[in-house]
Design goal:
nine-stranded mixed beta sheet; alpha/beta
Length: about 240
């Protein structure tokens, strides 16, 4: 029997049950816990773009699997938002509290030297056995320089966390812990690249205000420091 036939039969069964006075199961919604409290800091502004989600997980229904080859969905247990939105909100709050940034914003702004984007590769419950269950999240992040679009860094993170109980609440709790670890690993890397880009931008702006050409190395060339050197080279060439 095809999957579509099974789904149709299930829907018809629910309609018959409801028509006979039975009660439809109530749909419940879950979300990740707020990131660990921290403080804002740093000198840079970070833009966080909306995260894409791989098609199999781009669904508010919670995904679970019992083997590597098959995905299933809980029909009545769902995330409070799409996975890309939910994880993006978690990242925004976690990075804001990391102490690495002056602000984390969702819209492009002139004073932000870098933009962080990415995609949710997987977010699921993995049932290894009747007594062992894991929350698994895979997240790919990419950092680009705002003005040039040059990719400064990209990395894929994967974390798993055991469920204390095989419940949707247990899964949400485990995935919250896993996401906190990903955010803690990513924040220092993103912060370092953001600071470098911020310093380079300020250096270029300072050189531009004095009429000097921007330098990708963050400093002036020897000829810019000593214009007379060009004259001496020309004198030697005429001998």
């Amino acid at each position: 029997m095809s999957t579509s036939s099974i789904v149709l039969i299930a829907i018809l069964f629910e309609l018959v049950l409801f028509g006979c006075g039975g009660k439809m199961p109530e749909t419940r919604y879950y979300q990740l816990a707020a990131p660990t409290a921290g403080t804002q800091g740093g000198d840079t502004v970070l833009v966080l773009e909306p995260l894409a989600t791989d098609p199999a997980y781009d669904d508010e229904r919670i995904v679970y699997r019992t083997n590597p080859y098959r995905l299933d969905y809980y029909q009545y247990h769902r995330w409070s938002a799409s996975p890309g939105t939910m994880i993006g909100n978690f990242l925004e709050n976690a990075l804001e509290r990391s102490g690495k940034f002056r602000a984390v914003v969702r819209e492009a702004t002139a004073d932000a030297p870098v933009v962080l984007g990415g995609r949710v590769v997987a977010i699921e419950e993995v049932d290894r056995s009747k007594s062992e269950w894991l929350g698994r999240v895979v997240l790919e992040l990419t950092l680009t320089e705002t003005r040039t679009g040059v990719v400064l860094w990209t990395e894929q993170f994967e974390e798993t966390e055991r469920l204390a109980a095989q419940t949707p609440e247990g899964l949400a709790r485990a995935l919250s812990v896993a996401m906190q670890r990903i955010a803690s690993r990513a924040a220092p890397i993103v912060g370092e690249h953001a600071t470098r880009a911020h310093v380079a931008r300020r250096g270029d702006e300072a050189r531009s205000s004095t009429g000097l050409a921007p330098s990708s190395l963050g400093g002036t060339t020897d000829d810019q420091q000593d214009p007379a050197r060009n004259v001496r080279r020309a004198d030697r060439g005429s001998l």
